[in-house]
## 1
Amino acid sequence: MSQVMLKSPRGKAIESLVVSALDGEKNEILTCIMKTEQKLSIFEKKFNVSTSDFVIKGHQQVNQIPEMDAIEWLGERETLNKLQEKLSRLQEIQICT
């Protein structure tokens, strides 16, 4: 477990600032997750295959997907994974007073 101690001469004022900053970051990540999921959905509809099947089977075994589309699709999937991990870490943060 990691801990960070913040000190401010204003007392409780810093707590609301930190909570607000964390909430803003979470909201930004959620927006990015939605946009990334939309991009994945476009690929799924275009090639009529789910992202999970595409990742498991590889682009050469799924409907001969062009290499550039495959690279972009895999990149979006990786982006989604990283965003979800970051959101999860942020959601685990507890403000202790």
Note: The helical segments are 13-47, 51-57, 67-91.
## 2
Amino acid sequence: MIRSGKEGTVGMDAKPRSSLGARVTERLRRAIIDGELELGDALSEDKLATTLGVSRSPVKEAFATLEQQGLIDVRPQRGSFVFLPTREDTENLCEFRKTIEIEAVRLAMSRRRDETLKAMRAAAEDMMAACEAGDNHRSARADDHFHDASLENCGNPYLFNAYQLVSSKVAALRSHRSTLPTRKNASAEHIAIVELLESNRITEGLDMLGTHVLMMAVRYGIEEEPLRLPGGRAARSAKLDHIGLLPD
């Protein structure tokens, strides 16, 4: 998940209007990204409000914000659901990422080469260590940080903000869809990409990055569609056991 506040970036993602709404939004966003809520889960404003210990108003506000971020689908007369991408959705997402990330790396290497490579190398090595330790959460976050590095150092706020449109979705897919073997393969590719860039083999590094990003459609693709209700939504209701009251 790309982090705002870095030099040369300007965040323009949708934000809730109230501080409580912001806290509820962030809690639900993390629950989706970290796998506490499953992709396709049906969400109830009433149940979430009770679970979090808040009124429905900040939950409704959070739903609106998360819908703009692509993490929740709100269907009138049907309900609200955690996003559930089809294979086509995932392929389109990969094509978008490839276009954005290749240009971001190209710019970052010309404008902030040392900072970019340092961040990419650290994230690649952290992901490798996390995979060896079997720490799925840490490896997913290190994967995020590897791909965020170029966006945070490219010096182009338009590229940065374009990637923010999908960064939460990408982070959630990494948590929900990847397995240890796919993480190990991705980790090895990260190391190879960094080594190419460090040796100034930029074209080869960008080509490998493009192939690596497109592989997400294979690694995280949906092999079998889940059972759905009329209207195309998954039938499972969200389990809220791990959510708990909103911290003070």
Note: The two ends are 24 Å apart (CA to CA).
## 3
Amino acid sequence: MWSAAKAPTRRVACEPVAHLMGGEVWGPLMFLGALVLIFVGYPVAFALGGTALLFALLGSLTGDFDLVLLRAMSERTFGTMSNYTLLAVPFFIFMGTVLEKSKLAEGLLETIGLLFGRFRGGLALGVIFVGALLAAATGVVGASVTAMGLISLPVMLRNGYREDFSLGVISAAGTLGQIIPPSIVLIVLGDQMGVSVGDLFRTALLPGLALTGGYAVYVVVLAYARPGTAPALVREGSEPMTGARRWSSS
């Protein structure tokens, strides 16, 4: 009799918590929790997995989630591993790691920097074009931003580029890996939406190239409108090559 009378009291006490933590609240809270763990410094894999398990436990306490559903975790894991479309993701990440560790991306940045560096905004143009090439080679944003940030940012700052302009160019060029094929985002999107990944690659190529061209045009216009923002490289015993000098020499 005592236990029968006690059970409704406990259920009534949990009802306000379950009402406040409805199903529509868990999604934003999980997103914020994952961001907090990532910004604190936890690896992305542990941050995402830990957030899911933590909120599964909280959801079970409020009655919005049944822990029995965790038994399907192994099946979902093997189902994802056997997905042939998603198999391309680790290979693209491996390709980006190889380019970064083998210093191929560094050599590419240095070569294009020497090619365009004597013009105003040349280093920024080199960063944009290298970002597009790395995006087309790997589709990994992290590899592109890391390589260009470590290699080109010190060179740009040492040659008089404004810090905010340099950081903006590197960040913008790094995001080209999201849209220029092959893109990991497009692969995951095609798998989840049931759309052909090849069709997504074909349709995303032109917008990616247009975005690259828009970045390049913006850099050139800003470099000549504000010469102090992106000056030309000056070698010893030489002068920066401007438009007037090119026309006079020709």
Note: Residues 88-233 form one domain.
## 4
Amino acid sequence: MTEAPGVAPDVILFDLGGVLMDFGGLHRLAVLSGQEEGPALRSRWVASKWVQAFERGACDAQTFAEGVVGDWGLDLTPAEFLDDFVRWPAGPFAGSLELVRRLHGTIRMGCLSNTNPIHWQRHLDHWGLVQHFDWTFTSHDLGVMKPDPEVFHHVIRTIGTAPDRLLFLDDSDEHVRAARNAGMRAERTQGLLEVQDALRSLLPAGSAAGRALRSRST
């Protein structure tokens, strides 16, 4: 639920997967592992020591693939797994790119994502979304993952704005709570419609960003 408006934000920080991007990885993981897709599968994946290491930049792709194939009993070679893994992100939700294009230049923006070098390179090479951001904070570069408090303190120090002027949108309740504990304005949003609803609620209609948000894309 979106909190009552306070001071208008002057920075918007987006999570990527589940917020602006369609991450199809859990479906592929279910297919490859023969397990049921759902919260239990997601929890096991996120808690995997190999996922944690790869998304903190603490191991290379080959080590990550060997570990996942072994731990999950996948009927693939590590090279075959990596060939599949690179395509797990399905790309931006319809309208996401148009949204950030409209907002670009009207308010400062960034992303804060738990990700890895393989998927981040896909962002850079294929979708043209992150190029509109003033800051890109990725776990594999930072060496630490959400919801670790240091992630949010680092973001606040780097951006240099008052925490309550920084709006963070994420699809994880745990990440939203951690951001709020650091003093940031944070809202849980899943998918583009919820992102748009939150921004309409929190960006003043008369501000440059508010006008851009409410304008029709051309």
Note: The radius of gyration is 18 Å.
